[in-house]
Amino acid sequence: MFTGLVETLGRVAIVAQEPPGMRLSVDAGPVADEVTLGASICVSGCCLSVVDAEGARLVFQLGPETLSRTTLGTLTAGDSVNLERSLRLADRIGGHLVTGHVDGLGQLASREESGDWVTCRFTAPPPLLGQMASKGSVAIDGVSLTVVEVDAAGFSVALIPHTLAVTTLGGLPLGGSVNLETDLVAKYVARWLESRS
Fold it and tell me: I want to staple 137 with a disulfide (CB 3.0 to 4.6 A). Which of 18, 96, 104, 168 is the partner?
């Protein structure tokens, strides 16, 4: 489990194809501190296991399922990724409970700037929009955010200057794809209601 509070921006060092998957090496900075093999790291919203660690460089293996359901397969050397170590039971939850299990992809449809603040509107698959509510939580590329508005076509979030500066969302281009994870409670409620009908 994670909180959706990005600890640092990592830099992709090496992308190596390992059919049917791939190996991803990331310069992780302080996130690599005290990391052991098998540790869970949230990489731009996706929970990955550390398979090798060389100083501040962490190595992950991505299988076909991860590559087909996330944006991670499009990464190239030099790209930035949001990084967060897994939550300890004694930690404060400053964001919301994030599993790192990506539900689907969204796309940045518009950016509205107001001074240093930016309101972003994303499109998303209808089943995911059905699990969102105004003032509810959503994780976008692993960043815990509050939904401003949601309708049948998409949803919006307001990004403060700090979030724009310390996550990949600040440089996301129009049309850029993102990993989405809806609120854990909303998923269980939706599943329960589906099973009742």
Answer: 96
- Residue 97 in domain: no
- Please report whether residue 52 resides in a domain: yes
Q: Establish if 93 belongs to a structural domain.
A: no
- Helices H, strands E: what count in the chain? 4, 12
Structural domain including 70 reads: 8-85
If asked whether residues 73 and 33 sit together in one domain, one would say yes
Upper half-sphere CA count for residue 93 (Cβ side, 13 Å): 10
Q: Reduced to 3 states, what is the DSSP secondary structure of residue 97? A: coil
**Residue-by-residue pLDDT tens, the chain, 197 positions:** 999 999 999 999 999 999 999 999 999 999 999 899 999 999 999 999 999 999 999 999 999 999 999 999 999 999 999 999 999 888 888 889 999 999 999 999 999 999 999 999 999 999 999 999 999 999 999 999 999 999 999 999 999 999 999 999 999 999 999 999 999 888 888 888 888 88
Distances (CA, A) of 168 to 12, 90, 141, 162: 13, 28, 8, 11
Residue 9 and residue 78 in contact, taking contact as beta carbons nearer than 8 Å: no
CA distances from 170 to 2, 119, 135, 164, 176 (A): 21, 11, 21, 4, 12
